[in-house]
Design brief:
heterodimer, A: mainly beta, six-stranded mixed β-sheet, four-stranded antiparallel β-sheet, globular, B: mainly beta, 1 helix
Amino acid sequence: AQSVSQHNHHVILSEAASLELGCNYSYGGTVNLFWYVQYPGQHLQLLLKYFSGDPLVKGIKGFEAEFIKSKFSFNLRKPSVQWSDTAEYFCAVISGSGNTGKLIFGQGTTLQVKP
Amino acid sequence: KAGVTQTPRYLIKTRGQQVTLSCSPISGHRSVSWYQQTPGQGLQFLFEYFSETQRNKGNFPGRFSGRQFSNSRSEMNVSTLELGDSALYLCASAPRGTGAYGELFFGEGSRLTVL
């Protein structure tokens, strides 16, 4: 069965520090990968996605992620975090195709940025 | 364009009761998925509906059910509530099925507390 593993459950950083959140997935076929973010009191929203092509994908708010097929990883990065990046971050992979499918989420990483 | 709307936002029930949650997808979206979010289990897939048909179902007991109407609005029902059903229930919509499109647009959720 497919699964997604996020290594860090709770990360605390100071503003301007660099961020890297780990994500590994288990799936042998073609993968579509996502990072979603949930700001306090808000709905889940898409940060970035990888379907194919350039393994380095850029998302909103300066975030980027690199798909490394050989490592089954899709780590999220940001060179310099801001207090407003405080949120919970979820890595996800699609299971299924066509008009049926589901997102399999990792357990999430809570990021706290100190001003 | 209005986002995904879920009602009610908060509700409190007692064990043994049943509950119905409602979701209005983004206009034009034909797929509606439901996810359960808890601190212990994270985000777990419940089911997906596309064109009024359940296309995929997660690993939840039969007490959890849903349906989709011709206007794409969806409801989910939980019968014989248990304490462990306390969670944030998230609805997500997409123009096509999750497997075909991938990106989901989430509502703010319905927070259910079972006493």
